[in-house]
Amino acid sequence: AWTNSWGVVTRTEWVPTEAQVSVNNSSFSRIFYDTQNNVNANKVVYNKTVNSGQAINFAGRYYWEGSWSTLYKSNSSNNVVALVNGDTPPTTTPLYQQPTIEDFIKPYLDGAGRIKIGSMDVIYLMELTHTNKNDGGYDLQDLALIVTFKTVE
Questions:
Q1: Which of 19, 38, 47, 70 could cysteine-pair with 34, CB 3.0–4.6 Å?
Q2: Could you read off the pLDDT of 2-53 as tens digits, one per residue?
Q3: Which sign does the torsion angle of CA 91, 129, 121, 104 carry?
């Protein structure tokens, strides 16, 4: 986001963002790459059968001015937060008058503001630009994944 001298956003530009997955401690591989305006929340971007007990980890990063940002991983970073049914979303104060996390994930909240998803679902929220939780840019809204698990017989 570009702001004027009063801090008002004058222009917004979406950068390409990449989501990756690792199953059973394999290398991370891409499951999504595009910009915010090309996200289709109803499209399944990855489907795989895994065995019980296999670790599944997710990661995200963005591409800007010819290079990749840090790859933040769910198994080794405070920049990835996993939420399950009944959890309370973390509180952040986003920059540039952006909506809060609660606004962002409103369809997945109950009347008390707790996560309301299936018992085998997980929401991953990722912050890809800031590491200091006290910075206004640390809003956990740079990449979000909704992961659904089901039992296969």
A1: 38
A2: 667 776 767 677 789 999 999 999 999 999 999 887 888 888 889 999 988 9
A3: positive
